[in-house]
Amino acid sequence: MEQHVADHDDLSVGEMRTVRVGSMPVLLVRLDDGYHALPGRCTHRPRALGKGTLHDGRLMCPRHQAAFDVRSGDALEPPALDGLPVFPVEVRDGGVYVTVPDGAADRRLMPTGGRDPADDRVFVVIGAGAAGAVAVETLRRAGYGGRVVMISRESRPPYDRPNCSEDYLTGKVAAEDLPLRDEAFYDEHGIERRHGAVARLDVPTRTILFEDGEELPADAVLVASGGAPNRLPVPGGDLPGVFTLRSWEDSDRIAAASRGTDTAVVVGSSFVGLEVAASLTELGIATTVVAPEEVPLARALGPEVGARIRRLHEDHGVGFRLGRGVAGLRGDDRVDAVLLDDGEELPAHFVVLGIGVRPATAFVHGVELEPDGSLAVDEQLRVAGGAFGVWAAGDIATYPEPYTGRRLRIEHWRIAQQQGKAAALSMAGRGEPFRGVPFFWTQHYRLSIGYVGVARAWDEVVVAGDVAKDDFLAYYLERGAVHAAAGTREQQLGAFAELMRVGRTPDAGLVRTTPGIDLRELLAEA
């Protein structure tokens, strides 16, 4: 179907507009080489791309910062795995016409190769989380034709883990919608999925030993084993009814425990802990959060934003015991109470722990681990500078973070995906220094807060907007430099991410004197 969607001069270079061609929302974009058209919704989740960030032909989704090439439709940044089709555009008689073929899809699989029997190499990915899932696809897209073996403790294919503490836990997302790909995808592209536990990886020889005694030698290995949830080292900490949330199965266990019960305690005011508290409250369970912090998430987001998140939870019925520790858990055959360090006892039909994770690297041998148990990697995510043909990505990788100049380990889903892609390209001989801009989001009821950058030791927070009204952007400064931004203004966050990527992050003096400056204007000048 061809349709007139605009006059030639309706859009300036660098502008975009959402139009409809038949029943499909189409994003019309004008760049310096003319008009381009592609579907108007992100392939990760159906968010309107017309509200996103456009810079130099690169289009970023406003919600989760997936990025696409406007000219080709290619997916550039996760969490989008699929690209967008591009539609023919013709300018004639002063009008802009877009043709959407009958039955056109609103997404397309990126060109993905398969197994080449002549290639006898074996590349192994240990882990099927965010980093591992993206890595195996990227290897095939990069033209690698040898064996790809993805090892996972879980029998399920890779899935959308952030939803496990959010919409899947509350029942808003069905089980069939969690997998990132169906089983057929891995079969079609020659990606072997191995269900099992690795007992040992000998890094110098790249030999993998499974718990059943089988050995698998590899030509290249990516360690993407993720984190293991911390447990409570207190009496009763191992009672039945005490859960962590790291997996689909964990979410199912918590959902099952919530049926027919009415009280729960969440230990820890981490992002996951508070997301679980929100989900349990939506399920009608009286939930109390216990944490040693005086203000939840204050270390990450600052006291003003942390206090707003606490009020939001309290408005929905969540109770807090802050500045408190857990002395023990009580129960005969199952937990039924949480004993606090001040003597208070909280009834609980079940308990969820949200007290962080540690790198799951106990099986890694032959290379020195960092003090926190992570693996040190270089700028291409290679362990020991590439000496052994082993890479690491995600929660377990301490890498040279280019925007702060420090070595960091970041425990967030999207950067694990970014690192999985970068490591796979390096494994395939197409590596470049990793320069992914860190981003994560956290969802509490209908409030979504995004965070761009890294400010672990910020000493100043500058806020634009009104935190109390959930309309704000906060800048995090460290030693006079702006290292991160967080808030609800998605377009401003997108512009901040692009400014960081191109090395034009606003300076501290500007955000102090003009915190409400429109970052999109700065980006247009970059």
| Beta strands, count | 37
Distance between the termini: 38 Å
Average predicted confidence as pLDDT = 96
Coarse structural class: alpha/beta
Catalogue the unreliable spans.
none
- Trace the largest sheet across and list its strands: 13-12-11-17-30
Approximately how much beta-strand content do the residues carry?
25-35%
Query: Which bin fits the share of residues in helices?
Result: 10-25%
Per DSSP, the total helix count is 11
**Given the C-alpha coordinates, what overall shape results?**
globular
Question: From the alpha-carbon coordinates, what is the Rg to the nearest angstrom?
Answer: 24 Å
* Most strands sheet: 5 strands, parallel
Written description of the protein model:
- This protein is α/β, with parallel strands linked by helices and 526 residues long.
- It is built from 11 helices and 37 strands.
- The two termini are 38 Å apart.
- Strand 3 (24-31) and strand 4 (34-39) form a beta hairpin.
- The strands form 10 sheets. A 5-stranded parallel beta sheet has the order 13-12-11-17-30. Strands 19-26-20-21-22 form a 5-stranded parallel beta sheet, covered by helices on one side.
- The mean pLDDT is 96.
